[in-house]
Amino acid sequence: MTATTPKPTSATPAFCEGIQYFSETVPGFETYGKTPAIAQGSKSIADPADPAAVFQTMLAADALRYLTLQVTASKASGHPGGFASQAEAYAALVMLGHKNIVTEVGHHAPGFYSAMFLDRSLEDMGIVNVQQVRDKFREKDGLLGHLSGFIPGLLAPAGPLGQGQHFAMSGALLHRDKLFAFTMGDGGMGEPYPMSSMGHFHTAYPTVTNFLPVLVWNGYSQEHHSMVSTKTNAEMIAYWQGNGFEEIILIDAKEFDDGSQTGDYIDSTAFSLEQRMAFTKAVLQAVDKAAKSALGGKLTVFIIKQLKGAGVHALGAKSHNLYPKDTLDAPHIVSALKQRALSVEAWQLVRTNAERAGGGPAAKTVVTEFELPLADLGELPLEEFAVGGEAKVSTTAMGRLVGKVGERDRTFIVTNADGNEASGIANINQALKIIHPTTDDLYNQSPNGQVYEPLSEDACAGLAVGLSLFGARTLWCSYESFAINGLPIWQTVTQAMAELRRPTPATVTLFTAGALEQGRNGWTHQRPEIEAYFAAMMRNGNVFPLFPPDANSIQACYDWALTAKNKGIVITASKSPLPIRTTFEQTRQGLEDGAIVLQEIAGSKKVVFAVIGDMSLIPAFEAATALEKSGIGSRIVSIINPRRLYRPTDVAWDTCSEADGGFLSDDKFAEMFGGDALIGVIGGASGMLEPVMLRSNCPRDTFAWKRGETTASAGELMAFNGLTAEALTKRAIALVH
Question: Which end of the chain is more exposed for a tag (fewer CB within 10 A), N or C?
Fold first, then answer.
């Protein structure tokens, strides 16, 4: 074909504005391109062996390559190579009517954006032509460098490797009649999470196989050969079989090469038309077989083996990323675009098929564009304990409610890395049962349970937050010290929730067995630094760490969390019996104001103890008693919802969908925290106290976690970290004199 600079004509579709080069003709178009392969009123091609369907799938792949390269080169930035190497597979999925597609590879973003443009999904963003795609790429309020929750038609965000399978499995679990394919790079396959998480999911849900990994085996990762590039086809098939996959379908471009290309990884775009058609037909039929296998009850993977960068400006790892030299005027970019250029008629044909596929644009058809209908929970049976009465375990009180939620909402699941009983929430397992193929009443196991227990925190967090993103209620439970291993996916989803175009249930966590309770286990179980992670995330605007001081408070906190939308809510509580200090009404007020006053003692001076946590209240109350003996007054404030204590300008709340602009006023802050001195107390990271320290004007200090150690008791561990009544009293006296 010959490519030329376009001359605007009345026959050129408006969406083509901005396309740099058109070809005069496309070989084979007169034979196979006269009529769209997806007929009017149909959602997919009728026959994957039909030469016209094969040809038009090949055209779609080339259109995706062209747009991916031109859009990235328009900013001399972005990642065209990885997506290009599997363009036939993506095009095949679409031509077969499957649009619920996610990815584990954030670097595939420009290809996904190109697909969303072709099927008209991006029109919901006001993007109606190619020039606007170019203008909006990697720009604020546009097409972000990596997939996000902001883009119409795209089901899930993508950035860190090893996450895409969680979204595909979540969709599959909630929508058993639809296929959820996800592209997976051979670099990302080397992450420890994808294979283990899919293995556990398949053991827990053996009949839910309607998710399809599409392995993009192109021989290269970001900057070098991939670590699986030396595997033979047989070894790769054996690897997937060894991880429990029943159907492994591999299409290798090398088997179709008619140009004597060297190496194990081949560029199909360099084949003759006849062999390009043969390769595309093989991919189309294989994807059709894989989709039917996955929907039919077999754990299936489709593998496309093709050289990275196939059909774009460079090959191998050199195709991965564009640099400032890779502009639209650069000869190698110009040459690549001209090579992939389509005729005006071909562009219109590709667009018609794309928008018909799956029943319409992805932005109008994929499951995440709609709110998931949820069971009505009604009023939860909260149990209010008497203030000052018998000590109660907070986590157990919440666990009872969690069981009720699961009984009323059968899509609700709880995830935990095999530690509910150790966290004082055995009642969750008793009520909802651990999902396991072996029924065992002693261990609360049942194949139909609602407690998902892989040992990987990534798998725990991944399925929980994926389901929340897709519209379901979930709860991720973890030991505070180990939750860090699941936070990357939690953060990805919570950030995506901040920009979603629809409401979805908040992703809720319960972190237990805090550092102060883990003395005898030593520092390996004492990692409250995780609180600094959430402290930083509070400024995002939709992250709400909650610190209920007792068993009444935790129930009110969870009740509130169940009604929240598009938030990340972290509940941190102890598994030890602790005093009941609050009523439900106090906590509800604390959730709105950020904190509540638990005790006030008059005196010549007033020391304010701003306390985060439950066990950390113990030395504060003891210090208040000691100060009273010296004639010094005190006020103990329990901080329940520290995000409310920031000033509105500290937090990006107004940039969030489902924006929550509730903050404690200056007058109320002064009333609650004003005094002659202020001491912040926390058994975790001091950063969580930042909102108070920013706004307080009186002499102040912070007592917080320093490091772990093996001790016989919580008191001894607190003493090791300077969290004692004596230390608080001494510092308080110094501050007021």
Answer: C
User: Which of the four pLDDT bands, split at 50, 70 and 90, describes residue 7?
Assistant: low
> Which residues are paired to 679 by β-bridges?
609, 701
Q: How far apart are CA 552 and CA 430, in angstroms?
A: 21
Amino acid found at 72: T
Closest CA to 169 of 496, 567, 464: 464
* CA pair distance 586, 262, nearest whole angstrom: 73
3-state secondary structure of 607: strand
DSSP H/E element including 700: strand 700-703
Residue 2 pLDDT > 70: no
pLDDT of residue 419: 82
Under 8 Å between Cβ of 173 and 185: no
Find, among 470, 293, 353, the residue nearest to 97 by Cα: 353
DSSP 119-159: TTGGGGGT--SHHHHHHHBTSTTSB-SS--TTSTT--S---
Q: 544: buried, middle or exposed (CB in 10 Å: 19+, 13-18, 0-12)? A: buried
> Order of strands across the sheet with 700-703?
595-601, 633-639, 606-612, 677-682, 700-703
Do 687 and 545 touch, CB atoms closer than 8 A?
no
Cβ density class 467-505: b for 16+ within 10 Å, e for less: bbbbbbbbbbbbbbbbbebbbbbbbbbbbbbbbbeeebb
Q: How many angstroms separate the CA atoms of 446 and 75, rounded? A: 54
Contacts of 438 (CB under 8 A, 6+ apart): 445
Instruction: Give the three-class secondary structure for 89.
Output: helix
* 450 and 408 Cβ atoms separated by less than 8 Å: no
Element (H, E) at 507: strand 507-512
Q: Could you give the dihedral angle defined by the CA atoms of residues 33, 34, 39 and 43, in that order, rounded to the nearest 10 degrees?
A: 20
- Residue 683: both structure tokens together: 């058994």
Return the sign of the alpha-carbon dihedral for residues 414, 457, 459, 103.
positive
CB 83 within 8 A of CB 64: yes
204, pLDDT greater than 80: yes
Three-state secondary structure call for residue 392: strand
Q: How far apart are CA 299 and CA 245, in angstroms?
A: 5
Select from 641, 630, 578 the least CA-distant residue to 601: 630
Computed over every residue of the chain, the mean pLDDT equals: 95
Q: How far apart are CA 468 and CA 578, in angstroms?
A: 31
pTM exceeds 0.70: yes
Q: Tell me: pLDDT of 8 over 50.
A: no
Over its C-alpha atoms, the chain yields an Rg (Å, rounded) of 29
